[in-house]
Amino acid sequence: MKGMKSRDTTSSMISEQIVSRGIKDPSVLKTMAQVPRQRFVPVELREHSFSDHPLGIGYNQTISQPYIVALMTFALDLKDSMSVLEVGTGSGYQTAILAELSAKVYTIERIPELSEKACSILQSLCYDNIFYKVSDGSVGWTEHAPFDRIIVTAGASQIPGPLIDQLNMNGILIIPVGSKANQILYRLTKTESNSSRKYGLKIDKLTNCVFVPLVGQYA
Smallest Cα–Cα separation from 108: which of 79, 144, 72, 80? Predict the structure, then answer.
């Protein structure tokens, strides 16, 4: 009975929060149906796992609401051959979604306890294409660059230059930018430059949002 209830709730989450807002990509919907979101939510909040809002996971961090996870994943336009950098492991839920849809995920978290907990959950779910690092995510992960895709799950006051530098040509960066209370979720596509600059950037505004602040040297 518990399993059936979980499936029903996941189905409602997808239809009422994601599809109803215009995200209908089959691979994104299938992945979000498969990944057990409740596993990444603290036990005391599990009854709210599929609610349409973020949830606290400790250390002043949150697991994003399902729609935002779906939107960011859809905007990345992932392929199963791609290498992805995630800045902000957090609960590990977005990490799992990325791991389902790409070849390798390099995820950085500045809070050791969160990184360890996420790693434990993800390994228990048998993900073997995720690589973990406790560090300042705003500087990226140069040893494994360049990346086909980069996703930042915390709000930055500016776009960290190292992340753009570590992005492949025609790669995509998804990042919330703005003040603590007023941010815009952007999709940046790195393009060939028509000038003396090393590259150009195509910038698309996705939605208004509020994420916890990105902390780091280039945040």
Answer: 144
Task: Give the residue numbers annotated as catalytic, written as ranges.
Answer: 64
- CB-hemisphere CA count at 13 Å for 152? 40
- Cβ contacts of residue 72 below 8 Å, gap of 6+? 64, 94, 151, 153, 174, 185
In angstroms, the Cα distances linking 111 to 11, 59, 191, 218 are 32, 8, 33, 17
* Cα–Cα distance measured from residue 105 to residue 108, given in angstroms and rounded to the nearest whole number: 10
Q: Are strands 167-178 and 183-191 parallel, antiparallel or unpaired?
A: antiparallel
> Which residues contact residue 3 at a Cβ distance below 8 angstroms, ignoring those fewer than 6 apart?
none
pLDDT at 196: 66
For residues 67 and 17, the answer to whether their CB atoms sit within 8 Å is yes
Residues of the chain with pLDDT under 70: 1-8, 196
Q: Which domains does the chain have, with CATH numbers?
A: 2-209 (3.40.50.150)
Tokens at 68, concatenated: 């935002």
Residue 135 in tokens: 């560090």
pTM: 0.94
